[in-house]
């Protein structure tokens, strides 16, 4: 596969570029003179032109192409934008301030996005409302329909969503193995490291000492997942920290599960007040109770996305180590309809690939 091309004879700048490329997980081809760049110019997925050779490169009249950037270690050089235009670059990046942007440029060149993963967050309006069950059920339903899905357990006090799936013994990384990650990671590497079942990949909490999820770690995971997944479902705790706030900010929709009773409505009012400033599309999913769901939704000023069907024997099913029963069940139909509303369309076919509980209910 062609590699990004760096054109520079500035050794300090080249050292920076090699370090930044390594952070993005890519290797570079290097041309120390403009003339040496000619064979690589048309096929490199990204060309990074050092400010030191930009005029020399422009003098060779290279063919117009996309994905060219000029990089400099000199701040506020008024002549650098002239050089940018001369070589047909789309921007000038000044180091070290633009290092993260350059990491993204390298990463996008090496691993173009194949999907555009939609992030959906699920939170409980009140403890024990069933948000984790809904999050897992949505992820399972999507993956069984052929959508590449990542289920992210962001609740360090929830006992691990892998247990809810009956996969607590599955080999693979959990959050403690991921929290120190910075920079960029490919979705292929993430998928290889985490427990994966057919189209479903799971990043779960563990059952040791709770681990806080840093914002940077959540950002790395969601960036990778959005490039490589169709759907990302994040199971949130009721009180969001930095990492959870990052997920909320990226969510296309946030679902709050609320029991339709007085205490449920009062508790959810507080939860909604915490979540609303950090996310866009907020919706309720009701659990049947003593109050009319529409009345509860009106009192909270949040639209109701539906009433979650009760599943007889659900606790016993989960305690046996079986996943939530979805196939040919009201819960499965509800999840399919909710996903259709959230995604603007939902596939009904199966890929035939194995998944959790493929032979179950």
From TrEMBL:
InterPro entries: P-loop_NTPase, ParA/MinD_ATPase, Rv3660c, Rv3660c_N, YlxH/NBP35. Keywords: ATP-binding, Nucleotide-binding. Residues 7-114 form the Rv3660c-like CheY-like N-terminal domain. This is Septum site-determining protein Ssd. The gene is ssd.
